[in-house]
């Protein structure tokens, strides 16, 4: 895929601290999972920020794009460091990312599980793209707000499982994996649940929500097999294969990429509002990377 066009204005005088404040407001770091590592990874809070590149993964290809474009900040969904490290020397592949960015005066910020559950976050972006309406969190947070893991609701247009899976494939970035489906392709689906990223730990919640189909990524053999075996065992008489929930498995990267556009739009609006409060005009220019950072490069079918 090519590179997305940038949007926004290069005017204004936003600092990295300003951008971090807006991002933290959109995706509160306190809502991240306890094991997660979110927030500012590298950069000087006092540095000016005019260009922001948003991507799913903090990998070398994304750094190449950021530096070629002259970005002042890279915002990624996935953390560069999830475990403690003792060195960020440029002789390591992760250290090289940090060194290349900082040498070019470019910072790095991460919004991960806090962006998964927030309004207009990863889950909402995926649900909107697939036409899921009248929805709420699949697993709600206990703060009383409409936040939480995943989304579940009604399909704006019911479809057969096959047609719905084709809709998913057409809406998401193309990857080598494509879209895998488990279930009766001719059955009609009217409700759906979605979780961006790895979601087979939430099968019980999907069953409790009575969703007809579940869209997520990284489905493993045993959990998926057991879910479908149970669904078939409890399926309707005469058509046990039509037992729900059906499964639609997509690439991890593809399930989370749609959020980047929401983040770009909301960041630009937030920075513009912040500058206006200071009597200044302008915002940051945001660019959504379309570098496909899914690690798989090909699939082959048996002849």
TrEMBL record:
It comes from the Bacteria. A divalent metal cation binds at residues 77-78, 116, 252, 256. One of its GO terms (molecular function) is metal ion binding. Keywords: Metal-binding. GO terms for cellular component: cytoplasm. Pfam families: DUF34_NIF3. The keyword Transmembrane helix does not apply. Homohexamer. Belongs to the GTP cyclohydrolase I type 2/NIF3 family. This is GTP cyclohydrolase 1 type 2 homolog.
């Amino acid at each position: 895929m090519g590179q997305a066009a940038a949007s926004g204005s290069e005017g204004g005088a936003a600092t990295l601290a300003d951008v971090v404040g807006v991002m933290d407001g959109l995706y509160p770091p306190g809502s991240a999972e306890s094991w997660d590592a979110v927030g500012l990874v590298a950069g000087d809070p006092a540095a000016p920020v005019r260009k922001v590149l948003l991507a799913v993964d903090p990998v070398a290809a994304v750094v190449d794009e950021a530096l070629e474009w002259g970005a002042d900040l890279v915002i990624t969904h996935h953390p560069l460091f999830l475990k403690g490290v003792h060195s960020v020397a440029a002789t390591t592949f992760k250290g090289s990312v940090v060194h290349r960015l900082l040498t070019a005066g470019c910072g790095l910020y991460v919004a991960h599980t806090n962006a998964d559950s927030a309004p207009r976050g990863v889950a909402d972006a995926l649900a909107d793209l697939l036409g899921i309406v009248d929805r709420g969190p699949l697993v709600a947070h206990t703060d009383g707000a409409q936040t939480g893991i995943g989304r579940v609701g009604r399909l704006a247009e019911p479809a057969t499982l096959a047609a719905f899976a084709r809709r998913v494939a057409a809406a998401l970035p193309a990857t080598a994996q494509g879209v895998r489906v488990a279930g009766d392709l001719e059955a009609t689906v009217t409700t759906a649940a979605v979780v961006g990223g790895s979601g087979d730990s939430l099968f019980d919640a999907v069953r409790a929500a009575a969703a007809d189909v579940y869209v997520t990524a990284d489905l493993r053999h045993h959990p998926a097999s057991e879910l479908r075996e149970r669904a078939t065992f409890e399926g309707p008489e005469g058509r046990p294969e039509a037992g729900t929930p059906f499964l639609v498995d997509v690439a991890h990267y593809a399930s989370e990429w749609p959020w980047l556009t929401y983040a770009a739009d909301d960041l630009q609006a937030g920075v513009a509002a912040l500058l206006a409060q200071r009597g200044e005009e302008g915002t940051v220019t945001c660019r959504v990377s379309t570098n496909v950072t899914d690690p798989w490069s090909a699939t082959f079918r048996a002849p």
